Amino acid sequence: MCVFCSSHRPAQSGLGEIQIMDKRLLFVFITGAQFSVAFAQTLQYYFVNVSLDWTSAQSVCRRDYTDLATIETTADVDAVLSTASNYTGKAWIGLYDELYNSWKWSLDDSSFYGDGEYTFRNWYPGSPNDLYGPQLCVRLISVSDPLRRWDDRQCSDVRMFVCYNGTVDGTPSFVLSNVSLNWTEAQMFCRKNYVDLASIRNQTENDLISALISSADVWIGLYRDKLWSDGSLSPFQHWADGQPGSDSGVQCAATEFGSGRWYDESCSQSLPFICYKKSNVSEFYREI
């Protein structure tokens, strides 16, 4: 979904007045433009009042600014809202869903993974596929697949699971649960009683777990999360109630002006959007 474009500083025409309020706050008033901007922390946000699909909006932001907006704090939320005081609809931000490249292991210690091990995958043909709506967690299939491959499932499903319990003489130790839980509950159980849900770093470890599970499909520690367009790893979330949504297909995030909350929308929908640039000014406001 990434679009490579060169970045440059947009022209600033129609500059009317600059007023220094104090050392922390600068107001600039501009007329005749179709965007507004606010600073928070080190990010400068621009509201672009042109309706585009998410990928086209990303392309414009990367061409004219830095990228679609990354929002990492409640201060950022407020700064985004201040860019369009008269707009009450939704606008794209940089958070998006990626079916193939956004999978992560519950155990996120980078020292645990050797070269290529974090990205080892053993998907069943046709998976991942979001077959029944967003399927953000992964099971190892035993019942219907003798090769013990993986597929994506809804995290609310209840099943047995495998925990990682450290190493014994250099060999990873795995424990099969004797209870069935949803993925989040399984993660909590493994972290409380062992180390974490099982990471599978290679085919040897896949075979070790396969030998444990007999005929039970089990949760493993792989899950999918949305990504920021600029690669930020910020865990901050500001979803509206009931969001992210349950519609099938890849979804992108839009912020709603007024509440500042985030909503899943089809990435092909046309909406205005928020771009950002880096800034050395702590706070800034500019209005059309």
Automatic annotation (TrEMBL):
The chain crosses the membrane at residues 25-47. Keywords: Disulfide bond, Membrane, Transmembrane, Transmembrane helix. It comes from the Eukaryota. Residues 45-164, 169-276 form the C-type lectin domain. It comes from Poecilia mexicana. This is C-type lectin domain-containing protein. The keyword Transmembrane helix applies.
